[in-house]
Amino acid sequence: MYIGVDLGGTNIAVGIVDDNGNIIEKGSVKTLKERPTDEIVFDMARLSKELLKKTGIEMSQIKAIGIGCPGTINVETGEVVYSNNIPMEHYMMADKLKEYTGKAVYIDNDANCAALGEYAVNGQGAKTFVLVTLGTGVGGGVILDGKVMHGFNFAGGELGHMTLVSGGKKCTCGKEGCLEVYASATALIEQTQEAITKNPDSLMAQLAKDNGGVTGRTAFDAMNKGDAAAKAVVEQYARYLADGLVSFENIFQPEIIAIGGGVSNAGEALFEPVREYIDKVRFNKFMPKTKVVKALLGNDAGIIGAAMVARAADV
Amino acid sequence: MYIGVDLGGTNIAVGIVDDNGNIIEKGSVKTLKERPTDEIVFDMARLSKELLKKTGIEMSQIKAIGIGCPGTINVETGEVVYSNNIPMEHYMMADKLKEYTGKAVYIDNDANCAALGEYAVNGQGAKTFVLVTLGTGVGGGVILDGKVMHGFNFAGGELGHMTLVSGGKKCTCGKEGCLEVYASATALIEQTQEAITKNPDSLMAQLAKDNGGVTGRTAFDAMNKGDAAAKAVVEQYARYLADGLVSFENIFQPEIIAIGGGVSNAGEALFEPVREYIDKVRFNKFMPKTKVVKALLGNDAGIIGAAMVARAADV
User: Which of A128, A213, A246, B281 could form a disulfide with A254 if both were Cys (CB 3.0 to 4.6 A apart)?
Assistant: First the structure.
């Protein structure tokens, strides 16, 4: 059994997770991210102990604790090198939680944790596995032979910052034309908004008005009701996404690419055109093909993934 | 000691290579690619034996033989699944060369071999290493922990077929906007030709005329003589290339990206603007940085890499 901690800008979510990635018990408290980081970590320990008490599990039954944390992480030293979301610099988070719990603590970037969690539960033992999450940004991680692909400096796997349109729109990272700028939920909302401005009489425009604004669902909902402008938005968005995914396929040849994050809830309305495009243009013509599937873990991916980081490291 | 075979569309190059990747002796014969493949493989064996005789090395001193072959290779079975360049389908090449030599034979894609060869000789033990070759196409390979990254179906590492310009120019692979269409030597020549058409009075146009046509050097040579149109060509080409390389950096965080192929001979005139762009836009701000260097192995990369494939497999 492991404890997984999913540290977010809003909540600290903690779970007791069995060896197979099933959550036995979970809970959360507010992060209150402006307070001293030691207090945040203290709350991870406090919540862990509460969950153990609640379930009657002893701390001695926990093999190790994993933390998923936003930012740049040195997974070997357990240091949060830098985090913008929860303000931290050179903070020895693993050591601190070890001090508060007496357990071995391992830490990784939250996107890597999500990929490892999804892989553990839904990866079917794939030799190469990629998770791409479509949320505020485009995140993800790459799992090779069951392990997170970190790069030499632990900063690898930034799939959202592959260039998709050289010289294209500016990304928050400073580069132009990142996949994130074209395929995130934020991008989809922007693309929908632009199409509404150009097509003020469309059903899509009406739908946005009725619902008090544009969301990542607006274009899909309007398309399902037969709106042509909405269909064009979905088609273009699917093309951007598919162009990114087929690049990952050509580079990694993963057995599975799992798509998570809010936009993935659009389901087949998104996956069908994405798969159709990839089938048409993939480089690999003669070997078994990559499968593009919907990620199955939702919010729990972080907790489970953090626990799986502990499982992977605790050998 | 190993034997490395670099099978190309024009020549079969064979070398005896020591355990550290140094060529002891090498030679080549014409591939004559339209003849029966068994004959091509027989010539690999014949040339190997000639080189052994010439050097006084016994076949018993050779630990294994490696082949670098164009096309889709099943590295586990030693099968050439498909090759367009040298017409082959489901050909058990490793078994055949084993039959002719009595040695263990391993085979990998020629681009992967080149990457492994460059890594063995110039990789400085990097945990993650990427080779990108700028030739007729854009090839390359990824070395992780000293091993070729193959993907689940052995078709991975097609770095030239990452999308760089979504919806851009058509690639020979069938997809639009591949890195290869913007950053290969072929692309550079095309970009140079287009600029010459637009600037018929430029020094670059004169240079092309004097030299009987445009090559991958024309723009660099004209730029060095102060031609503004040529400078613009180099700047745009460097930007395309750098946009691809920084994507590989953000994805893999390799310690080293080595650039090979004909265009890399332009040297600092190319590397300087490429590094400058990457320094400005890389995602990783807080950890050690990827180094972009010129690949050092030229034509020998194939032989050495094939031998290193044998070394890696022969354990």
Answer: A128
